[in-house]
Design brief:
The protein is an alpha+beta fold and 477 residues long. Helices cover 37% and strands 15% of the residues. Bound molecules: pyridoxal-5'-phosphate. Pyridoxal-5'-phosphate is lined by residues 123, 188-190, 214, 253, 258, 286, 288, 316, 318-319, 328.
């Protein structure tokens, strides 16, 4: 019998045969996954425990090695175990703390909401992957010597250490060269857009927006008396408007167009920077989700390319760590630093300073980088597994549009309408949102399937549930 050995010792022995007892008809790899996950969650397998090799485990359990490999892959994807090159698999140092759960019954009104804590909601990161223990330690350390000035008003542009860390981080990760003075800490991407619109556009002006696009963009513009000018998104990204369009600003997501997950082509990027230069206009670049590029090479943002002096760059920590954090940032061209500083001061943009102090230290200690590495692996696996499950369960009903980026999949509807799919899903505790929710022009019927915030097993269960619902409703594909 193989053993689970914890480092440095002692050796722990677990009745591995029990892993398979009481299986409830689920695929064997899921039974093994859930049992090991349970052993970790209950502390029976402490952090750092080394798992036997997949060959040894398969031999002990009398199952195919692939079955064990598949279970281990799911456990890695969901952050329960870590693999170390050349030395096998170990229980993660910080296994997930936030419980992930099977889909509960759909609450009232679920069909109308963009985000619900149900699979396939979009915009939910893997909360179980967040290093709560590390955050807690850093936070305790910061509060032991919280500077007095961090508890007073007086940093409308953000905590200086965080502005510094952000300036060096975006240079390393995204090639955006800037000084800390160009960084303004906001409560997120929407807050960043709001400040930009107030600083640069007056009521009665217009701004180009993506169609389909993130509706919060148009809402933010309208609240400021600015008219959104929707422009279609094609395979190269946001199209340039007609030359007669009077807009002097364009709001876009070139790294990962929301919601289509299209990456803007190099030619289109060049055309947009030329557009801004010719009319003395501005590009608001939301670099949201650029950290999660699953296939091929990611492109540098517009803010890192020639023409960057007309680009206002925004990004957010809210989807990287957890949505209620409410911290993000803007990087403004040097020519705009004074204007934005005045606007931020007068409008009191101010995101809470103590959390900024903690975040700066969290990043400095390397926890954000570590989190991103874990999240990339986990999200990549979740995405791959969801694609496979959907292809198996929903072939003939939905067609997945393969995009290299994004934390949700986009599926074209082959049978039925968006409303039918949303209702069908809601009845089964699965959350879908339709493409038309984001579009002003008629859009090809489609739905979004967020995967980042859910364990592989929950995603697979939701895909199977949706497949059963589709067959019951439409007949076989
Ligand atoms: C395109 C886009 N940008 C940014 C964000 C994040 O916004 P915030 O930082 O305000 O939470 C979202 C959230 O859903 C989004 O869809």
């Amino acid at each position: 019998m193989s053993t689970f050995a914890s480092r440095p010792s002692p050796v722990r022995t677990v009745g591995l045969i029990n892993l398979l007892k009481g299986g409830d008809g689920r695929p064997l790899h899921l039974v093994i996954y859930h049992r090991i996950r349970h052993l970790i969650a209950t502390g029976a397998l402490p952090a750092g425990t080394r798992l036997p090799s997949s060959r040894a485990l398969a031999g002990d359990l009398g199952v195919a090695r692939n079955t064990v490999v598949e279970a281990i892959e799911l456990l890695v994807a969901d952050g329960w175990i870590e693999t170390r090159r050349g030395s096998g698999a170990y229980v993660a140092e910080e296994p997930p703390r936030v419980a992930t759960k099977p889909p509960p019954p759909a609450p009232e009104g679920a069909a109308e909401r963009l985000t619900d804590d149900l699979p396939f909601s979009v915009g939910i990161p893997g909360l179980g992957l967040f290093r709560a223990d590390a955050w807690n330690r850093v936070q305790a350390r910061c509060w032991r010597s919280m500077p007095r000035e961090a508890l007073l008003e007086g940093h409308p542009l953000g905590w200086p250490a965080l502005r510094e860390v952000v300036a060096s981080q975006v240079q390393i990760t995204r090639g955006v060269v800037c000084s800390p003075e160009q960084v303004i800490i906001t409560s997120g991407a929407r807050n960043a857009l709001d400040l930009t619109v107030r600083a640069l556009l007056g009521p009665g002006s217009r701004a180009v927006v993506e169609d389909p696009g993130y509706f919060a963009v148009s809402e933010t513009l309208r609240w400021n008396g600015v008219t959104p000018a929707p422009s279609p998104v094609d395979a190269q990204g946001l199209r340039l408007p007609d030359p007669s369009e009077a807009a002097r600003m364009a709001v876009m997501t070139p790294a990962c167009e929301f919601p289509l997950c299209v990456v803007m082509s190099p030619d289109r990027r060049e055309a947009w920077t030329a557009w801004a230069a010719e009319r003395g206009g501005w590009i608001f670049e939301d670099d949201y989700d650029s950290e999660f590029h699953f296939e091929g090479q990611s492109l540098p943002p517009l803010a890192a390319q020639p023409g960057a002096s007309r680009v206002i760059y925004a990004n957010s920590f809210n989807k990287l760590l957890f949505p209620s954090l409410r911290l993000g940032y803007l990087i403004v061209p040097t020519s705009l630093v004074e204007l934005f500083a005045k606007a931020a001061l007068e409008l009191q943009v101010n995101a809470g300073i103590p959390n900024q102090v903690v975040l700066a230290e969290f990043i400095r200690d390397g926890h954000l980088d570590r989190h991103l590495r874990t999240a990339r692996t986990a999200y990549g696996a979740r995405r791959r597994r969801l694609v496979a499950a959907l292809e198996q369960e929903l072939a003939g009903f939905l067609e997945i549009r393969r995009q290299p980026v994004g934390l949700h999949l986009v599926a074209r509807i082959l049978r039925g309408s968006e409303a039918e799919w949303i209702a069908l899903a809601a009845e089964r505790g699965v959350h879908l949102v339709g493409m038309s929710r984001f579009a002003t022009a008629p859009a090809e019927p489609g739905v979004l399937l967020g995967f980042a915030g859910f364990d592989v097993s929950d995603l697979q269960a939701a895909a199977a549930e949706l497949g059963r619902a589709a067959r019951a409703h439409f007949g076989s594909a």
